[in-house]
Design a protein that fits this description.
Number of helices: 3
Shape: extended
Distance between the termini: 41 Å
Structural class: mainly alpha
Largest sheet: none
Number of strands: 0
Strand content: under 5%
Radius of gyration: 14 Å
Length: 56
């Protein structure tokens, strides 16, 4: 896959996710990270990533 095709696929996926989030749904398998939690997710354990949630 060339760079242009890859960029187009990423753009399409981003548009799809944006649309479903605007509709109030989250695509299956998606992990939505709130902006305030970005730093905590950067330090998340592999187990937290697999579970899709941070331990408090």
């Amino acid at each position: 896959m060339d760079d242009a095709t890859f960029a187009d696929r990423l753009r399409q996926q981003a548009e799809h996710v944006r649309k479903v989030l605007d509709e109030g749904t989250v695509p299956e398998g998606a992990l939505v990270i709130h902006r305030d939690d970005l730093d905590r997710w950067r330090d998340a354990t592999p187990e937290e990533w697999a579970a899709g949630r941070l331990e408090t």
